Amino acid sequence: MAGEIIPFSRGGNSNWRLINAPNNATTMPSAIIFNPFIFPFLFFLISSAVPTTISLDYLLSDCPDTTTFSSNSSFQTSLNSVLSFLSSNSTVQSGFHKTTVGDGGDSTVYGIFLCRGDDTEDVCRTCVATAVEDVPVKCPNRKQAIIWYDVCMIWYSNASVDYSVPISLWNPDFITNNVTWFTNVLDDTMNKIVLTAAMGHSGKKFATADVNINMLRKLYTLAQCTPDLSFTDCYNCLMECIRQLTNCCSERQGGRVLFSRCNIRYEIYPFYENAAALAPDTAPAPATAPATDLVAAPPRPPAISKSISQWHQILIAF
Ligand SMILES: *[C@@H]1O[C@H](CO)[C@@H](O)[C@H](O)[C@H]1NC(C)=O
Ligand SMILES: *[C@@H]1O[C@H](CO)[C@@H](O)[C@H](O)[C@H]1NC(C)=O
Ligand SMILES: *[C@@H]1O[C@H](CO)[C@@H](O)[C@H](O)[C@H]1NC(C)=O
Ligand SMILES: *[C@@H]1O[C@H](CO)[C@@H](O)[C@H](O)[C@H]1NC(C)=O
């Protein structure tokens, strides 16, 4: 599967911007359309100079077809229990749950969901419910799977050790001005939020920060680990993300690296909820000029590519 390009499903893209793409509204997952938490976005449309983008859009899945189980097997039964435990725990404050069903034998299933740190309870619950429903569709009869959405992910496996390999996504557009400066600001900010996330305030290992790149533009960054990781595991996992970022996303306007236990992302437009951002050094969003600049030049949706590399496996015991 190395290098495979995964198309977006549902005609959506991860950079869904309600404010710029009203014509595409019919392609949104129904979960968004009919849920009350959409109203904060409507509020943003009307009142906010800097719109925040949050969507339940499906990003991609990875489920090796070498690991399959047969329907009605005891593995299926265990998996069903795991998925139902993940669903029923999706309102927990930490936005995270891990569970094991089985006695350690062949039909044992390990499972995790992780919601993005700024998700409201509604967003998290809806995203996990969607993910659980999508498992048999995206990864039919697979013993190992990871499914990513913008605001949550689920992972399960027959193995307790996570052989997660990095998945990279990037914006096809490049930074054109003052590239060295941009890269320095990005490195600096990433290194800071990786530490903040690893230290894990508020029961989450999550940090965001936005910084000025110049008078007109800001850089928005995010780092997150599953909160069960130690400081060291989280830190090492996120540093691996940063290393991967230089492979996939150098000089890009946006990039992400996703492991099952940690992930980072940056964009030059806001994509997380400032209100719920936990990083202590997060500056308030500016009320004036930058928004105009950002909206005038909306970023294109990112290309998606998976980089599978044996040398960059992150091994974290369950
Ligand atoms: C699975 O079990 C159900 C109920 O026992 C049965 O109706 C169905 O045909 C079985 N499916 C397979 C693929 O064996
Ligand atoms: C959460 O999952 C655990 C298993 O990991 C299960 O025992 C528990 O009942 C679930 N909690 C809720 C509220 O369903
Ligand atoms: C998981 O399943 C695959 C495919 O059936 C198998 O090769 C592997 O040994 C299993 N891993 C564990 C820990 O059971
Ligand atoms: C790059 O941007 C910074 C911050 O706006 C500025 O101080 C610096 O002079 C710029 N460098 C160039 C070569 O434009």
Q: Mind explaining what this structure looks like?
A:
It catalyses: L-seryl-[protein] + ATP = O-phospho-L-seryl-[protein] + ADP + H(+); L-threonyl-[protein] + ATP = O-phospho-L-threonyl-[protein] + ADP + H(+). InterPro entries: CRR_secretory_protein (IPR050581), GNK2 (IPR002902), GNK2_sf (IPR038408). The two termini are 25 Å apart. The chain folds into three domains: 4-38, no CATH class; 58-159, 2-Layer Sandwich (Killer Toxin P4, Chain A); 168-311, Killer Toxin P4, Chain A, CATH 3.30.430.20. Helix content is 29%, strand content 22%. By secondary structure, it is an alpha+beta fold. Helix 5 packs antiparallel against helix 6 (231-248). It binds 2-acetamido-2-deoxy-beta-D-glucopyranose (NAG) (4 copies). The site of one 2-acetamido-2-deoxy-beta-D-glucopyranose has 4 residues, from helix 3. One 2-acetamido-2-deoxy-beta-D-glucopyranose is lined by residues 85, 88-89, 99.
